[in-house]
Specification:
This protein is an alpha/beta fold. It has two domains: about 250 residues, Rossmann fold (3-Layer(aba) Sandwich); about 220 residues. The chain is built from 24 helices and 14 strands.
Length: about 500
Amino acid sequence: MNLPRTLGELRKSSFSEQRLRTRKVKDELRENLIARLRGSESIFPGIIGYDDTVVPQLVNAVLSRHNFILLGLRGQAKSRILRALTALLDEHLPYVAGCEIHDNPYDPICKRCRELIAREGDNTPIAYLTHEDRYVEKLATPDVTIADLIGDVDPIKAARGGHDLSSEMTVHYGLLPRANRGIFAINELPDLAGKIQVGLFNIMQEGDVQIKGYPLRLPLDVALVFTANPEDYTARGKIVTPLKDRIGSEIRTHYPGTLEEGISITQQEAWLRRDGLELHVPKYVREVVERVAFLAREDKKIDKRSGVSQRLPISVLENVISNAERRALRSNEKTIVPRIGDVYAALPSITGKLELEYEGEMRGADTVARELIRTAVAKTYDTYFKDLNMQQVVQWFELGGEIKLADTASAQEILEGLKNIQGLTEKLAPVGIKPKEKPEVLVSAAEFVLEGLHAHRRIGRTEERVFSAEKQPKRAERPFERGDDEPPVMRNRRPYN
């Protein structure tokens, strides 16, 4: 596509002068969104689980030409949604070449561009912004200043250009003016100091900013969008009331509502490509990984205000596959097939993402994470084998059977031992095991069954991954049974006279 390169060529092109003069960024977002709504295109491709909740509210905000804020816990795709808004911008937007604030050729607002057009006329050079160029993002931190956002005097410009310090030509523009004719996003808005938040009032209400020390006003054309974590309102900072009042829509995000949505997000975001080896991740492994996050969000030992990010299952799945890859490389296996043992090996990608309550701190992050995995295995096991009689497998262990399933052992090595467990390999059909399955897949499924039985306390397992019969604790070592008001020793003791 040959784009006009001078103002004269631009006047003769398909870029309508009237349209460029009057069409603002929010109008552009609105028009392109309407075109998508009328067609069959996805509005926000790659955003999973929000079709019936968040997306309709986003659509309403854009149609209303609102500045809006996404309010939600960590790992709820807030930043990703904001960046996806660029898809609603035009592919090319002309501006005066060399302008720091991307001035409209037909309606320049900075002195440099006005003088350039007056001097060059139709020979004024034109450049173009892509939709990606029109997105400016700033992470709010307490040390952000007004000069960073709006601008300030630049003595170096004055010295080099021979300008007086009071001249508009000595202005150093901040991020907000540089986002002119585009989208300006601020992540974690409450972390911005209150006096800095005040600096956003004018642009949101009157559509202009005032540079410190100058009697000029820049009527910027910017769509402002923000993100915030509800915890921040009390833990680190707050959004000042007048600024909240100027934000058109407050949209709440959330974690995946179903296990299937969570698995789809993790599948989309996790790095799963492993060069040189075939990768097969069983469905039950994906479900266990995802259930860990779902259970953690409901666990009383974990701080709900902080949330459990969707990055947890993404990191865990990557770690699970890496542990399986390490085993495959050491054993010279051609296929990477993760096992449940690999989920336990991925503990480092779980513990760092959990903010624990007092009870959780007393138990320890490792213990809490292991409990989450065990419960996730039990629930996943029930979806496949709940109605299947596993007594024959349990009985083999009760008669003294024992087997070690080290996560470093090859599939062929473990398979020889698994064949001794009567009835085990014949009961793997619910997880899709075929008669002539690869040893790696067969071992993974068999281990899943044994881990499920262990999670339900029907067989035992040591930390060295040795499976054996479940050992019942002695009466004095057992926790209080339901209905017990005091330890057994205390119940048998007579009161003093």
